[in-house]
Specification:
heterodimer; A: alpha+beta; Alpha-D-Glucose-1,6-Bisphosphate, Chain A, domain 4; seven-stranded antiparallel β-sheet; B: alpha/beta; Quinone Oxidoreductase, Chain A, domain 1; Rossmann fold; 2 domains; seven-stranded mixed β-sheet; six-stranded parallel β-sheet; 29% helix; globular; ORF3 (chain A); Putative membrane protein (chain A); transmembrane helix (chain A); transmembrane (chain A); COQ10_START (chain A)
Chain lengths: 425, 389
C-alpha cells in the first residue's frame, strides 16, 4: 500500500511548499511582520540543549543558560529543577524581561501550534481519525488525516520555521555565541545540508542590520519553500506514473487496484488449500454472504453491497498453481467487474506463509461512489486488510476473534464506533 | 451481574450488566472470586488512556472458578479454580510461540486502531481500552476469558486466592522487570516507583541475585513495604536522586534501572510537575516521563533500563542522547504473563515468594468506586486493594 501513502503526502507537501514560499516572500516584503510571525513559530535550536542542563544537575550552568535562553521561557521551566532556581523564576530575565505569566503561557503553548500536532495521538482527535481508516489520502477526512498524520510529514513542518525563526527571536549577539551550537544541531533538523548552509548565512547576517538579515533569511526561506513546492510537484508527478502503471486496460480507467499482505504461521500448502475452497472466503471476508463453488473452477458469489443491497456474480479461476497462486475473475455482466490474485510464499526462517492479495475492481458509481463509500467508512483498502487479519485469525486460531467492543470481530466501521466493553446480553 | 464500569474520567460505578456467555469456541466463563485494582487501572481512571468508552468493564487482575467452557477448551472443566493472565493471547501465532504473549498477533480485534498509534498492534487486554481490544474486564462477578485453553492457570493445591491472585499481573510484571535487567552477581538495581509492582520487582531482583536493590518513591509507607522486600530506599522529595545514586554506587550508577512508574509520574519540583502535567492535561503530550528520564540518566554506562511502567503514547524531552552515547540498553514490554505463571506458581508453592504482602485493603466488589478513589489519592496508606465478590 505504499503507493497509497504517497498519495496522502501530496496535498500536505503541496500546501507546505507554497506556504514556505509565501513565508519567504513575506520576509522580503514585510520583514517586521514576518519576524513577529516567526517568533511565534520559532522552534528554536539550541534551546533543546538547555533542557539537558537541569538534568545534568547543578546551578553552575545558570549564566550560560541565561545567555542561551532563546525564547519566551518555556525551556526555563526545564531549568528549574536545579534546587532553588524556582524561587528566582520571577526575577529572571526571560528573553527580554517578560514576567512569569507570559513566560508560562508561552511555555505551555510555545510554538504557534507546532505542539498542536502532538494532539493527534490523543483520544479525541484520534477517534475522529478512526472514522476513516488508514491508507487513503483523498476525500475530505483523508485530507484532515494527512494534516494530522503524526510522523514523517510533521517533521517536514519544522523545516519551514527553521530558516528564519531564530534570526528574529534572539538578540543579534546570540547569533554569534550560539553559532557553533546551532551548527551542531542544525544537521539533525531534517534538511541537513541546506539548513547548515542557511545557519551560516544567517550568522554572518546576524552581525549586520536586522533588515539585511531578514532579507537574506527571507530569500532562503523562499528557496526552501520553492524546494518544498518542487518536491511536492515531483511527488505528484510520481504519483501519476504509479497510477498509470496500476491501471489495467481490461477494466477501463476507473479501475481500483488494492493490495494487502499478511504473514500466517501455518504451512504454505495448508494456507493455499483453505483459500482454494472459495466456500471458505465468507468466513473472513465479511462483505461476502456466500460463495458457492459450482465446479470446474467456477463459482457463484453473493455480496452485501452498499445500502444493504445484495450483489451477485459468477467467477472463474483463471490460474491455479497449487501452493503458490490462485487467480480469479468475474464473468458475464457483473455489476462490479472484479478480479483477484492471491500468492503464497514461504516466509523466511520458518516464519510461516506470506500471503499477498491483489484485487482489482470497477467500483459502482466510479470515483464519486468510491469517495462516498469512504466517507461512510467503507474503505476498500481497509476492508482488504481487515479480511486478511481475519484470515490470519481463522488460520491460526480457528475462528474470527471477537471482543465485547467488537462482537463481529475486526471491522473498520466497528473500530470507529465501539460497543462498550460489556457482555452483549 | 454486577460489574465495575468506567463512566468517564475519575468515575467508576458498580452497575448491573448482562452476564457473559461463550462467544468463541475457545472461551471460558469464570465466576470471579478475587480481583485487584492495578496501578495501571488508575491511568484509565484518570482518563489518560485513549479509546475508553462509558460503560467499559474494568479489571485485568482476577481469578475465580470456571462455570462454563467453550467446545474447544479441553484443559479446563467447570469447577476448576484458575488465575487469568491479563494479556489475551492465542498461543498459535509466531509471537505467542516465541513466548511473546503480550504481543499476540490475533487477540486484538481492534488492531487497526492500535496500529495507527503504535505502528503495530499489541495483544488485547482485559478491561483496558478499545485500542487494546475492547474486552470486558474482571472487576465483575463473571468474566469471559478468550483463549481459555492457553492463558488461565489452574490452582490445584488449595493455595488461598491472596497468594496466587497476583500471578495475573503484578508478580510476573515485577519479575519480568527484573529479568530484563539481566542481573549478574554484584549488580545494583534501582527501581523507580515503590508501588506493588516495584515492591515485587525488588523481591524478584533479590531472588535473581542482585547485590543491592534501591527503591525510589515519595510515600513513606510504600518505601516501608520496599524495605520489607529487601530494598534500600530513597525518598525523592528528600534527596536528589541522581546524586544519591551516584553516591551509593561510588560514581558508577546502578547497573540497571527499572521504571515501575509509567505515564503519570510525579515530580518533586512543583514547576516541573506543572509543566508536564499541563501539557498532558491539554493533550500536548500523553505521558509524563520523569521517572523514565531520571532512570536513563542514572543508569551506569552500558547498563540497562527496563520499563514495566505503562506508557500510552508519546513523551517529550526523551534523553535519547544519553541512551545512544552511553551504550544503554532500553528494554520494555507489557508482561508476557503466560510465560511466567507456572514457574512463579512453583516458587509460591515452595515459599520463595509470597506476594500477598502487598495487600493493604480487602474490600467488596460493591466498594470499587471508593477503592479507586482511595487508591488514586493514596489515602489510608493504600498499597493494593483486593476486591472479593
Amino acid at each position: 500500500m505504499t503507493h497509497e501513502d504517497q498519495h496522502t503526502a501530496d496535498p500536505l507537501a503541496r500546501v507546505l511548499g507554497w506556504a514556505g514560499l509565501g513565508l519567504g516572500l513575506a520576509h522580503i516584503v514585510a520583514p517586521k511582520t514576518a519576524g513577529r510571525v516567526y517568533r511565534r513559530l520559532a522552534p528554536t535550536g539550541g534551546r533543546e540543549f538547555i533542557q539537558a542542563m537541569p538534568m545534568m544537575g547543578g546551578t553552575s550552568g545558570r549564566g550560560l543558560r541565561r545567555r542561551l535562553m532563546p525564547t519566551g521561557g518555556r525551556e526555563f521551566l526545564y531549568a528549574i529543577p536545579s534546587p532553588g532556581a524556582g524561587g528566582r523564576l520571577r526575577g529572571l530575565p526571560m528573553a527580554g524581561g517578560r514576567g512569569l505569566p507570559r513566560g508560562l503561557r508561552r511555555a505551555l503553548a510555545p510554538t504557534g501550534g507546532r505542539e498542536f500536532l502532538h494532539v493527534i495521538p490523543t483520544p479525541g482527535a484520534r477517534d475522529l481519525l478512526h472514522m476513516t481508516p488508514p491508507g487513503t489520502g483523498r476525500g475530505i477526512t483523508g485530507r484532515i488525516r494527512t494534516m494530522l498524520a503524526p510522523t514523517g510529514r510533521r517533521e517536514f513542518l519544522h523545516v519551514i520555521p527553521y530558516p528564519g525563526g531564530r534570526g528574529h527571536a534572539h538578540g543579534m549577539g546570540d547569533h554569534h555565541r550560539m553559532g557553533g551550537m546551532r551548527r551542531m544541531m542544525a544537521p539533525g533538523r531534517g534538511m541537513g545540508g541546506m539548513t547548515r548552509l542557511m545557519s551560516s548565512g544567517r550568522m554572518r547576517a546576524g552581525r549586520g542590520r536586522r533588515g539585511g538579515a531578514g532579507g537574506r533569511i527571507g530569500a532562503l526561506t523562499a528557496a526552501t519553500g520553492l524546494a518544498a513546492a518542487v518536491y511536492a510537484a515531483a511527488r505528484i508527478g510520481r504519483r501519476g506514473t504509479i497510477t498509470r502503471e496500476q491501471q489495467g486496460r481490461e477494466l477501463g480507467e476507473r479501475v481500483r487496484d488494492l493490495r494487502a499482505a499478511v504473514t500466517i504461521n501455518q504451512p504454505r500448502e495448508e494456507v493455499y488449500r483453505y483459500w482454494r475452497d472459495f466456500g471458505h472466503l465468507p468466513r473472513f471476508m465479511t462483505h461476502l454472504e456466500s460463495v458457492e463453488v459450482t465446479g470446474d473452477g467456477r463459482s457463484h458469489w453473493t455480496a452485501r453491497g452498499p445500502a444493504g443491497k445484495s450483489v451477485q456474480w459468477d467467477a472463474e479461476i483463471t490460474e491455479d498453481r497449487p501452493g503458490e497462486l490462485i487467480s480469479w475473475r468475474s464473468t458475464g455482466r457483473a455489476t462490479v467487474p472484479n478480479s483477484g490474485t492471491v500468492r503464497f510464499a514461504d516466509a523466511p526462517g520458518g516464519r510461516g506463509t506470506e500471503v499477498r492479495v491483489s484485487l482489482r475492481y470497477d467500483p459502482p458509481g466510479g470515483k464519486a461512489g468510491l469517495a462516498l463509500a469512504r466517507l461512510l467508512g467503507e474503505h476498500p483498502e481497509q476492508q482488504v486488510r481487515d479480511d486478511l487479519r481475519r484470515f490470519k485469525q481463522v488460520m491460526e486460531t480457528g475462528e474470527v476473534v471477537r471482543s465485547e467492543g467488537s462482537p463481529e470481530g475486526t471491522r473498520a466501521l466497528r473500530q470507529a464506533v465501539q460497543r462498550p466493553a460489556q457482555p452483549v446480553g | 451481574m454486577k460489574a465495575t464500569c468506567w463512566m468517564g474520567r475519575n468515575t467508576v460505578e458498580v452497575r448491573n450488566v448482562p452476564d457473559p456467555g461463550i462467544v468463541n469456541a475457545r472461551d471460558a466463563v469464570v465466576r470471579v472470586t478475587s480481583t485487584a485494582i492495578c496501578g495501571s487501572d488508575l491511568h484509565l481512571y484518570d482518563g489518560y488512556v485513549p479509546t475508553m468508552k462509558k460503560g467499559d468493564i474494568l479489571g485485568h487482575e482476577f481469578m475465580g472458578e470456571v462455570v462454563e467452557v467453550g467446545p474447544q477448551v479441553r484443559n479446563l472443566r467447570v469447577g476448576d479454580r484458575v488465575v487469568v493472565p491479563f494479556p489475551i493471547a492465542c498461543g498459535n501465532c509466531l509471537s505467542c510461540q516465541n513466548g511473546m504473549y503480550s504481543v499476540c498477533e490475533n487477540s486484538n480485534p481492534n488492531a487497526g486502531v492500535a496500529e495507527r498509534l503504535m505502528g503495530h498492534s499489541p495483544a488485547g487486554i482485559f478491561g483496558y481500552s478499545h485500542m487494546l481490544g475492547g474486552y470486558a474486564g474482571g472487576q465483575a462477578e463473571y468474566a469471559r476469558v478468550p483463549f481459555a485453553d492457553v492463558g488461565p492457570i489452574k490452582v490445584e493445591d488449595g493455595l488461598p486466592d491472596e497468594k496466587v491472585l497476583f500471578l495475573s499481573d503484578i508478580l510476573p510484571t515485577g519479575w519480568m522487570g527484573a529479568e530484563m535487567c539481566d542481573i549478574k552477581p554484584g549488580d545494583v538495581i534501582a527501581i523507580w516507583g515503590a508501588g506493588p509492582v516495584g515492591q515485587l520487582a525488588a523481591v524478584s531482583a533479590r531472588l535473581m541475585g542482585a547485590e543491592r536493590v534501591i527503591c525510589i518513591d515519595r510515600l513513606p509507607y510504600r518505601l516501608h513495604h520496599a524495605e520489607r522486600a529487601g530494598a534500600e530506599t530513597l525518598n525523592y522529595e528528600e534527596v536528589d536522586v541522581l546524586e544519591a545514586l551516584q553516591d551509593m554506587t561510588a560514581g558508577r550508577g546502578p547497573d540497571a534501572c527499572i521504571d515501575a512508574v509509567g505515564m503519570e509520574a510525579h515530580h518533586g519540583n512543583p514547576a516541573m510537575y506543572a509543566y508536564d502535567r499541563t501539557k498532558q492535561a491539554t493533550r500536548l503530550e500523553t505521558d509524563r516521563p520523569y521517572a523514565l528520564r531520571q532512570a536513563i540518566l542514572a543508569c551506569r554506562n552500558g547498563g540497562t533500563v527496563s520499563v514495566i511502567g505503562v506508557y500510552g503514547g508519546f513523551v517529550d524531552k526523551f534523553p535519547m542522547g544519553a541512551i545512544m552515547n552511553r551504550s544503554l540498553t532500553l528494554r520494555a514490554g507489557q508482561c508476557h504473563v503466560q510465560r511466567y505463571m507456572r514457574p512463579l506458581m512453583d516458587r509460591i508453592r515452595h515459599g520463595d515468594i509470597d506476594p500477598s504482602f502487598v495487600i493493604s485493603h480487602r474490600m467488596r466488589l460493591e466498594d470499587a468506586p471508593h477503592a479507586y478513589e482511595m487508591f488514586k489519592n493514596k489515602e489510608n496508606e493504600c498499597n493494593k486493594v483486593v476486591l472479593t465478590t
